[in-house]
Design goal:
Strand 2 (about 35-40) and strand 3 (about 45-50) form a beta hairpin. The protein has helices spanning about 10-25, 55-60, 115-130, 170-185, 190-210, 215-230, 240-250, and strands at about 30, 35-40, 45-50, 80-85, 90-95, 135, 145, 155-160, 165. The chain has seven helices and nine strands. The chain is α+β, with helices and mostly antiparallel strands. Helix 3 (about 115-130) runs parallel beside helix 5, helix 4 packs across helix 6 (about 215-230) and helix 5 packs across helix 7. It folds into two domains: about 10-95, 2-Layer Sandwich (Phosphorylase Kinase, domain 1), CATH 3.30.200; about 115-250, Transferase(Phosphotransferase) domain 1 (Transferase(Phosphotransferase), domain 1), CATH 1.10.510.
Length: about 250
């Protein structure tokens, strides 16, 4: 998408609404290096992100490259409609796919058809990302959004694509890392039977979409659990009992 899709008065209005939301405590995220808000303009909702250039350069070594990754994930992530510099800030604007993600999703019933369908779509989505030899640096469940607003995209989309890299041949270790991030990101308050059911739908859909045989999947899943246990960058939120139940469900004990 062209950076000219949102510009001029529209960009000024979105930026003003963004900073107003930040100052009013209504930001979705507000840390020194990055602020994220949901704002509306002309009847349409957008996600606006601002990055403090000095901090980003010191931490990342460069500005966030949102546009560069759009082609890698075409059809799988909301479009970036503006990426520009305003003063000391990089301003990036995305289409807003919806408010429901798979972390805060209302999934307290183990066999709820809609929930199982969404988690299965997330599994197929991750398999498609991997089929494109793309590694997404943050595949926790909050970054999988139920798509209510963008009919041209997949039913579940992935967001927060600041850390995306395309490989000539994506290593198995990277695929397992992504699986580990998702599997270990179920909310603590979710009942164990619900976490097992929904993570099971995710894993089964991933296995099928990726075309993995039973032995290949078992190795992949066990590698994901090893990564989760030993990698300090994996946030382990899923209850241990749920992981045990998931292993039993998938037959990889």
């Amino acid at each position: 998408m062209s950076s000219k899709e949102i510009c001029g008065e529209a960009l000024s209005c979105l930026a003003e609404a963004h900073w107003r939301a930040v100052s009013n405590g209504a930001a979705l995220r507000n840390i020194p290096k990055r602020q994220v808000t949901r704002v509306c303009y002309d009847g349409k909702s957008y996600i606006v992100k601002t990055y403090q250039l000095g901090l980003c350069r010191r931490i990342l070594g460069l500005k966030v490259r949102s546009f560069d990754y759009m082609d890698y994930l075409k059809g799988l992530t909301p479009g970036c409609v503006c990426d520009c510099i305003m003063g000391d800030w990089q301003v990036v604007v995305f289409e807003d796919a919806g408010k429901n993600n798979l972390f805060y999703f209302d999934y307290m019933v183990p066999d709820d058809a809609k929930t199982l369908r969404c988690f299965a779509e997330a599994g197929r989505l991750l398999a498609e990302i991997h089929s494109r030899n793309v590694f997404h640096g943050d595949t926790k469940s909050p970054n999988f959004v139920v798509n209510d607003n963008c009919p041209a995209l997949s039913p579940v989309v992935i967001v927060d694509c600041d850390k995306v890299r395309q490989y000539k041949d994506l290593p198995t270790l990277k695929k397992a890392f992504n699986l580990a991030q998702f599997i270990e990101s179920a909310r603590r308050k979710v009942p164990v039977e619900c976490a097992v059911s929904h993570l099971g739908a995710f894993c089964c859909a991933y296995k099928e979409a990726a075309g993995l045989q039973d032995a290949e999947w078992k190795r992949m899943f066990q590698l994901a659990l090893e990564i989760a246990e030993n990698n300090r960058h994996i946030e382990r939120q899923t209850k241990p009992e749920a992981i045990t139940g998931l292993k039993k469900l998938l037959g990889v004990e």
